[in-house]
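Table S4 entry, Actin-like ATPase domain-containing protein.
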Amino acid sequence: MNRFCVFLLLCLLTVSETVLGSVLAIDYGVDWIKASLMKPGVPFDVLLNKDSKRKIQSSVGWKQSDRLFGSDAFNIAGRFPLDSFSSLKYLLAAPHDSEAVSFYTSISSADVVETSRGTVALRRSDGTEWSVEELVAMQFAYVRELAESLAGERVHDVIVTVPPYYTQFERDAVVDAVEIAGMRTLALVHDGTAVAVNYAMTRTFPDPEYHVIYDAGASAIRATVVNFASVASDPKAKSLTKDSTQISVAGVGFDRMMGGTELDRRLRNIMLDDFRRKHKKDLLGDKRAMAKLWKEAGRVKTILSANADATATIESLTDDIDYRAKLTRAEFEEACQDLKGRYAQPIFEALENAGLTLDNVTSVILTGGASRTPMIQSAVKAAVGDSKIALNVNADEAAVLGAALHGASLSRQFKTKDIKVSDIGVYDIQVSYLSEPKSPSAKQRTLSTLVYPTGSKTGSKKTLTFRRKEDFTVNLSYQKPPPGGFPTELLAVDIIGVSDAIRNLTELGAIEPVVKATVTLSDSGFVSIKDAVAVGEYKAESIADKLKGLFGAGSSSETETEAETETAARDEGSSSSSSTAEASSTADKKASVKDEPISLELQINFPSLAPMTVAEKRQARERLIAVDNEEAAKRRKEEARNTLEGYMYRVRDLLDDDSDTPFLKCSQDEERKAIREKLQETFAWLSEHGDDADTAQYLDKRASLEVLERPIIYRYEEIQEFPHALNNSQMWNWHTRLFLTDAKTNLTTELETGAPSKYTKEELDALEKTLIEHEKWLNEWVEKQKAVKMNEDPVLLTSELKARAKVLENQLQKLVRKKAPRSTTKKASTASSTGASETSTSTEPSSTTSAVPPTDESERSHDEL
Ligand SMILES: *[C@@H]1O[C@H](CO)[C@@H](O)[C@H](O)[C@H]1NC(C)=O
Ligand SMILES: *[C@@H]1O[C@H](CO)[C@@H](O)[C@H](O)[C@H]1NC(C)=O
Ligand SMILES: *[C@@H]1O[C@H](CO)[C@@H](O)[C@H](O)[C@H]1NC(C)=O
Ligand SMILES: *[C@@H]1O[C@H](CO)[C@@H](O)[C@H](O)[C@H]1NC(C)=O
Ligand SMILES: *[C@@H]1O[C@H](CO)[C@@H](O)[C@H](O)[C@H]1NC(C)=O
């Protein structure tokens, strides 16, 4: 019973253990990827790459057929400008003719082409095209592998940071890339919000505080106004329960086209102009030169962040012209003069959206790589005042660490500080639909309602009520075009089966049946219509109510709630009631007179940019897996070739060494000759076919050499092993002899005294016979073996020595283990039985009792070889 419980408990533990997966957080930036893994038992930190760096350059590329990641991929841009892909974040879901794409082509030498979906792909020098989602997925998969080698298990769940201004199209692209990389998106979290989570982790807020998270990244500057408040989770038991922290995003401001990359671009243009002046040559069309300039611009910008001037140096920038120029910070800042007013602007936009002023804010927390650029930092200081500036979070890592903590709390598998997050959307989202025609010929009006205005909480639902009798379409769209050149139209949702449902409800006696559709803005910022129903209300006299009355339901709570129908009536039969999930559910409860709602079918269409279809994603996933498999096969082949080559050089060294090596001593002339010939043949094969051979051929070649070396190795091993094996045989001879002498003496005594004897004479004679035969065999064959030369095969094998010694040993042990006979007198019994057990329990002869004389052979140790 007890054991069963323990067993059950263990099972439960194992089950929950396997359910406990790790959570990977990825902060995917234009320049850098940062990642962090949350796994029980693994210290919480950012993930290190293969060079133990804390961030990975956001690049993927190919050097001929070798795929590269991180700085390896970034650094080849000067040589392979068409095969090195960086700053891909600009291109996620970007329409081919968008501002985002034209900006990208001004900073990158990569070849941008249009996909069938209207988004972009990049074309490699070999002509293959890779969608942005596929390229980003490769980077996600690379991070996944790093995480898996740390976790020691498969990593499935990932939380990815996205900028708050990301459109639904871009969010879809991130989720698709995660799926193509073989993972699941646990959530998307806004980067500013992730920093706030990280900030709250180690702090408490006895009085609510507002802070601005100012994030100057490579692609954009954004500011997030966050309210932090500590709340006792259970006011009644304040001292016992742990406090939780509520983080509420109150406002967001951003400048999508202003970030570190724009500064790099300005610096690159300074060099471009300078080169044009000095060398009377335009580099714009020279992809290699442009890629080299781009890399140098990034390097020089970093130097200018800490120094007043820097020297740009690019060897053979073009046509063997080396470029060298002194650049000053003043010159750089002059070139960025027009941007100055934009650096701090997002802070004021965020405050305005939050309905606050700087006075309400405790601090402005600076994060993001570009926040270190002096002109940006000083602009922000000038705008908000030095005293408000806080540099108390890690500008690079706060977002990814916060995202990991948030992911961990979402997955509910980890004990983390209880932090509740409430975030907002940053765009006005509206629904539009056509009014119901008054008459078949009347023109329909387009009606629009702002369903989620800027600042609406994410993770909320709203119920829209429509008075319709036919199928209709509800469009969801951004009210204004989002910056970057993304479309406004999000979804067109057909609501199907309306006329049938309404007719049925009417036949049942419903008055003014309506269609209700639930619109959601998810925690990850996706807007959608999740379900739609037709519902009606019934007069007391209706058939349905009579039926209800019969079954004793409903009649008591017939007090009508007109809230919903009133709103519905407001706008000639079609309007929306914007209420939160809670509000609508209470309304439903009160309106218990309503009959069961009839579910309607939804058909979701993508009027502008569609996310990838299931088939497209599967195809992309298979494509990536094929690349992985190809690379694995290539690695195996390289390994086989390297092993073969290593082996060949080793054998050649053995052959060439004419000192007294074991190899020389244990081999015969003809054997060495055969090996030498085979080796020469293999070297010739390698130089001729080595580059186009396959894995199996490398393995074969090695095997055919090994087969020649094996007899030599075998001899050598036998020589090494022989003294030990011989020692063992002699030792058992010696033990048996001792035992026999002792036992025979005892037997004689026992016979004389008439005491019961432990062994019979026959048993002892049989053992002695085996012993003598073994001794005789051993002497004879050891003599024969002595005559064998080292480079000849042995006549006496160590395996046979061991086997024969074992036979003797077994026979001896059998007697030793024999139970002492029952004696008639107590004394005799104790004496003999204790004695027996003393000599014999150990099967391993102990060194204290045995001192086997060393033999001639035992001196022939391997040192000689
Ligand atoms: C913001 O500051 C103003 C002026 O100091 C004050 O009146 C207002 O109540 C503050 N608002 C909040 C939400 O704290
Ligand atoms: C809804 O979107 C579709 C597809 O873009 C469009 O044809 C239709 O006119 C839109 N309807 C309304 C009412 O906006
Ligand atoms: C309407 O009623 C008919 C007859 O009872 C039934 O077959 C049909 O499925 C109903 N339609 C809906 C949408 O409920
Ligand atoms: C043989 O065995 C004895 C006793 O165990 C040991 O001292 C000696 O080193 C052994 N010799 C070899 C060659 O193993
Ligand atoms: C012989 O007898 C002595 C004394 O009783 C005992 O200790 C010893 O184990 C016996 N030897 C054998 C081989 O049985």
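The CA atoms of residues 685 and 701 lie 9 Å apart.
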